[in-house]
Amino acid sequence: MSAFDDLMGFTRETRALGAIMGRLNWDQETMMPKGAAEQRGEEFEALENVLHTRKSDPRLGDWLSSIDPSSLDAVSQAQLRHIRRSYERAVKIPARLAAELAKVTSMAQGVWAEARARDDFAHFAPMFEQVVALRREEAAALQQGTDHDLWDALHQDYEPGSSGAELDAMFGALRPRLVALRDKIMGADQPKGLTGTFDEAKQMALTTALAANFGYDFARGRIDKAVHPFSSGSGQDVRITTRTNPEDPFNSIYSTIHEVGHACYEQNINGDYLLTPLGEGVSMGVHESQSRIYENQLGRSRAFTEYLFGQMRDSFGDIGIDSAEGFYAAVNRVLPGYIRTESDEVQYNLHVLLRFDLERQIIGGDLEIADLPAAWDARFEADFGVKVDKISNGCLQDVHWPVGLFGYFPTYSLGNVYAGCLHQALRADVPDLDSALVKGDTAPATAWLAEHLQQFGGLREPRDTIVHACGFEPTEAPLLEYLEAKFAGIYGF
Fold first, then answer.
1. How far is Cα 322 from Cα 300, in angstroms, rounded to an integer?
2. In a 3-state reduction of DSSP, which class is residue 223?
3. What's the predicted TM-score (pTM) here?
4. Which residues contact 74 (CB under 8 A, 6 or more apart)?
5. Which domain range does residue 232 map to?
6. Among 106, 419, 454, 477, which is 20 to 30 Å from 170 by CA?
7. Residue 258 known to bind ligand
8. Residue 140 lies inside a defined structural domain of this protein
9. How many domains does the chain have?
């Protein structure tokens, strides 16, 4: 066997072990007994020890140095690029630190859930201090030999090639037009919302049907419930979760469609890439572009909501709205609210921008953990004009920081920007898309996304993946133009 064959065989085994660890994480968030948290932390620590040893194995360096990239085809060169990047990052992180991070972040998830349920930040603060200290230590190790600051060093795990400075510029262009649009909307009459109570079993039946509608393959996946909806896995085992609320069926419907976007990306990647670095989504920003375009530009479109209106009435009877146009407006209402995952398209990015700024301060050492609740509340009131009523609606609402995912949050807004670009290109290529969506047929859109983006997995770098699919460099303009046109139509200004 050649050095490249040896390298790929070793990498496949490592990624198979990583998939097992991912399944343990899925179990922890869906059905693990509460009392198993401490043991699960030790299990994660043990597995991370094995994985880190493999990811930093000196044989990887030997194989990489002995392979001539010019002798490889484009796919093999891309595999090599990913493996080299992973190896160069792994060798900077001490094995002790990698294992401790796995253990502490696993345990922190349970403590966070308890603190959130109690609305008690003090209950979580000591554990959070540990998480942040470990992630700062990791960032300092990854920073070596680069021009990255601490936050940028962590951000590369989620969006390689991106930087805080670039995102700052993009978000600086987004913020004023989003705020202006929100202010116009808040000065207009609000559409009517749904009324009634919505049986949770019927919600699950409807969301299961919608998942299939959007192309989710249940032979290689399943839907479960979790506190925080997520997608897990790749290739032949891609699972999603959702949550239900008897007062708000949109929570379940659009959480499900969002996670289906993630899952379909993974399920539609070229099968030849299974258990290789190309066999998963190339970055979280690109991943979010899929979940957001499924959820918003498709799922909240006037055409698709006309179809969904009929499905809702069939499932629940009288929902307090008697027209498809009224239902479209109800789906897209812009209301004050605390929770990012329940936010409308206009205000969603403002939630993300708040977190982006605060987490850079946390990792940079400019914001102490004890001061986070007050900093969050002050920023939230400044951005949204509403005082935070309780900590579970404030800085404890998301699981990302408790499990150490610093550098992750801005990929949500980057994904929205990418989705705006993809939507513009999709509409140009499929001008009669609405005639299918109004019948609940998403195939013209999802097939376009599979062909132009999803099948390639990690073949190209994140930004190049979007350029290849759209035919132009991504900017925030398509997203802003889409939002301004859509909500001017709904709110009549």
1. 18
2. strand
3. 0.94
4. 459
5. 164-491
6. 454
7. yes
8. yes
9. 2
